[in-house]
Amino acid sequence: MPAPGPHLWRKGVSHARTRPRPSSCRRADGCRPDNLARQPAASQRRCPPRAAGAAGRAGVASVAEAAVNAPDDHRLTETGLPPEGRGRVLVIGCGALAHEILALKRINGWDHLDLTCLPAIWHNHPDRIAPGLRALVERHRAAYPTILVAYADCGTGGDLQRTCAELGVEMMEGPHCYAFFEGAAASADRAGDEIDAFYLTDFLTRQFDAFVWRPLGLDRHPELATVYFGNYRRLVYLAQTEDAALDRQAEACAARLGLAYERRPTGYGDLAGFLAGRG
Q1: Which site among 139, 176, 181, 251 is 20 to 30 Å from 188 CA-CA?
Q2: Helix pair 159-167, 129-140: axis angle to 10 deg
Q3: Where is the composition biased (Basic residues) (predicted)?
């Protein structure tokens, strides 16, 4: 049986030797926490709602705040987002971060920022990200004195960082751009304890079928979920917004994969600090 093709994000992956190794796992030890026990349902954490904070804090936004002028998820997944051409600072980001970046722009009145995004589905094809970024920088450099890159390595094996250095543009630091929500430092601190966790964000919860279920062939062979996810123990939903319906949807994703469920409110994490005071 071939290994999973999509580049699916998680901090750590455990793999039995007889099971396929997902392409995103780059650890030399194979990420095998042999003695980790499955988290019982009674211990699943259910966090209480938290009020939205200012953009500079990691407050969780309300559904109404996040929905204002929100771009279409399918478009962000498949084609990305073009810039409006009205600002002086261009942010090139992943389509999976578009909702949060636009929310921060609106909340803070950052009208000097323009956002353009590469297709979010390129997380399943990380070899496309660095060439796509190069093309966008070369296309828009003359129109924007400052260009920022709201990406982390995202499975490119360092190619994206090298491309940004060559082009002279600044990118965020981190192993993967979803770690921005929890905070890169906090994400790194947790990594060793959460090697058996699979992660979703608001966007990935809404696009679970497009990023996980269909690319892995689980729509045709759902029984393969135990092969691909047999050594995971829990699904952690990193929640950017307070949305009860989305919470239920994320919990349903965990059930489809046979995993325990945890909801962890994060708000916008490191994105606010990276974008603040630019231009």
Answers
A1: 251
A2: 20
A3: 8-20
| pTM for the model | 0.76
Tokens of 147: 């260009």
Domains of the chain: 61-178+268-275 (3.40.50), 182-265 (no CATH)
CB 78 within 8 A of CB 72: no
Q: Which ranges of 120-201 does DSSP label H, i.e. alpha helix?
A: 129-140, 159-167, 179-182, 184-191
Cβ–Cβ under 8 Å, residues 136 and 83:
no
Query: What's the start-to-end Cα distance of the chain, in Å?
Result: 51
Q: Are 213 and 256 in contact (CB under 8 A)?
A: yes
As a whole number, mean pLDDT of residues 181-188 equals 84
98-157: pLDDT as tens digits: 999 999 999 999 999 999 999 999 999 999 999 999 999 999 999 999 999 999 898 999
Residues 227 and 258: their CA atoms lie apart, in Å, by 11
Nearest to 203 by CA among 43, 40, 81: 81
Lowest mean pLDDT among 8-17, 167-176, 220-229: 8-17
**What does the pLDDT read at residue 177?**
72
Per DSSP, 145 falls in state S
Count of positions (residues) in the chain: 279
CB-based contact 229:198 (threshold 8 Å): yes
